């Protein structure tokens, strides 16, 4: 009986380690940076938002691949972030609503 309980606990522990987190920390950081950059620039040129995001993102991440990560993130996520902000979602709630944090 004791062995069965230990085996069950071991299985639960292993499953907890294998199940991925709902979000990635880097994505959460990038989302917050994107919201911080995009919120005051709504209605302005998206190219300027992308450039400002790229600069801020690289400062925040500080990893060798940050350039690729930042570029991919903003290409995939800028439109939904801007849409949420324009729809009236509070900046502090955007990343949670988009499941990035």
Automatic annotation (TrEMBL):
Gene3D superfamilies: Saposin-like. It comes from Cylicocyclus nassatus. Residues 1-16 form the signal peptide. The keyword Signal applies. The keyword Signal applies. Keywords: Disulfide bond, Signal. This is Saposin B-type domain-containing protein. Residues 24-101 form the Saposin B-type domain. SMART domains: SapB.
